[in-house]
Design brief:
Strands 4-3-2-1-5-6-7-10-8-9 form a 10-stranded mixed β-sheet, with helices on both faces. The protein has helices at 2-27, 47-56, 73-86, 109-112, 128-138, 152-160, 191-194, 197-203, 215-218, 225-232, 237-256, 271-280, 318-330; strands spanning 34-40, 61-68, 94-95, 124-125, 143-148, 168-172, 209-212, 285-294, 300-302, 307-315. It is α/β, with parallel strands linked by helices and 335 residues long. The chain has one domain: Ribonucleoside hydrolase-like (Inosine-uridine Nucleoside N-ribohydrolase, Chain A, Alpha-Beta Complex).
């Protein structure tokens, strides 16, 4: 009888341990995420800084490189490096993009004053385009390129090594299909396309899987009220860095126009955050397969003969996306 009781106790202990293991594994983050590279014109519009901070909060993404794009290579690389260092993510390499390596001022330069790129504890690739190529070609699984700026680096990478299109997928913030800026029913020549139409055309005709958020979806996203306050008041170092940069960016733009910056009560339009979201999931977007052509004026025109791509043309539930965005920014990812 005593033996039977002991056996029952052992079995019960094993059962409880098993439940604990199931519970723990059900809430644990994935050991590794999808390999990803971020290409950004950070330092111009502040939404790139929001998007980079968001990407750092997505355990679904294993970020292999953050690469500054569209000229201004050293100041962009310096800004990326300091943000990653502040977020304690110096495991992520920084890439210097193509362009003349000269010092120039961008909207967040005040925040990087005195920061030496050579002091970055992680890896800095002086030829960021070659680093992108090497990472993609060496990867055992497809690499997701999250492209949230104009695309001269991507075009150059395709020129040097066209085979990257067979080993990567492209997720970007580009274009305008049925809505322009500020919900204008007339499509616009969206900046990331208009800044370099030839480079964008090269990227959006390459034979990789393409997913984009045009202004139709990304141009609608802004955090206000309680949503913005939760981010603004976060004590997390990475988010405090984001808000500090937002303040500096706002003051720079106000001074440029001869004004004094007032209190900040909402975010700007967070175009680039939607591209990060699409790299993780597409559940809250209406996705259409459209044939889009990039013309010389920077418009993305529907054209039956053009390359087909996945396009987020509308929101299924925009408030749910904004809730997701705030939760990701204000919650540390599970290790």
């Amino acid at each position: 009888m005593k033996l039977m009781k002991r056996l029952d106790l052992v079995l019960a202990a094993c059962f409880v341990s098993g439940l604990a293991l199931v519970s723990t594994s059900a809430h644990a983050a994935p050991a590794t995420g999808t390999p990803a590279i971020i290409s950004t014109d950070i330092g111009d519009d502040i939404d790139d800084t929001w998007a980079l901070t968001l990407a750092l909060r997505c355990p679904e993404l294993d970020i292999k490189l953050v690469l500054g794009d569209y000229g201004n290579p050293l100041p962009r690389a310096r800004l990326i490096a300091k943000i990653l260092e502040a977020a304690q993510r110096t495991d992520i390499p920084v890439g210097v993009g193509i362009g003349t390596e000269k010092e120039s001022v961008h909207h967040q330069s005040k925040w990087t004053e005195g920061y030496d790129l050579a002091s970055y504890p992680g890896k800095v690739y002086r030829d960021g385009v070659q680093a992108l190529i090497d990472i993609v070609m060496a990867s055992k699984e497809p690499v997701t390129l999250i492209c949230i700026g104009p695309l001269p680096n991507i075009a150059e990478a395709l020129r040097r090594e066209p085979r990257i299109a067979q080993k990567a997928r492209f997720v970007g913030m580009q274009g305008s299909v049925r809505l322009g800026y500020s919900k204008n029913p007339k499509p616009a020549a969206e900046w990331n396309v208009r800044a370099n139409p030839a480079a964008c055309r090269a990227a959006l005709t390459a034979p990789w899987d393409i997913t984009i958020t045009p202004l139709d979806t990304c141009g609608l996203v802004q955090l206000k009220g309680e949503n913005y306050a939760r981010v603004r008041d976060s004590a997390d170092p990475a988010v405090k860095t984001l808000i500090e940069n937002y303040r500096i960016w706002t003051e720079f733009n106000a001074a440029k126009s001869g004004k004094v910056a007032g209190p900040i009560t909402a975010s700007t339009t967070l175009f680039d955050c939607v591209a990060v979201y699409l790299a993780v999931t597409q559940n809250l977007c209406v996705m259409e397969k459209l044939n889009l052509r990039v013309d010389d004026d920077g418009f993305t025109r529907e054209d039956p003969s053009a390359r087909q791509m996945n396009v987020a043309t509308a929101w299924k539930n925009q408030p749910a996306f904004e809730t997701w965005l705030v939760q990701r920014l204000t919650t540390q990812p599970t290790k």
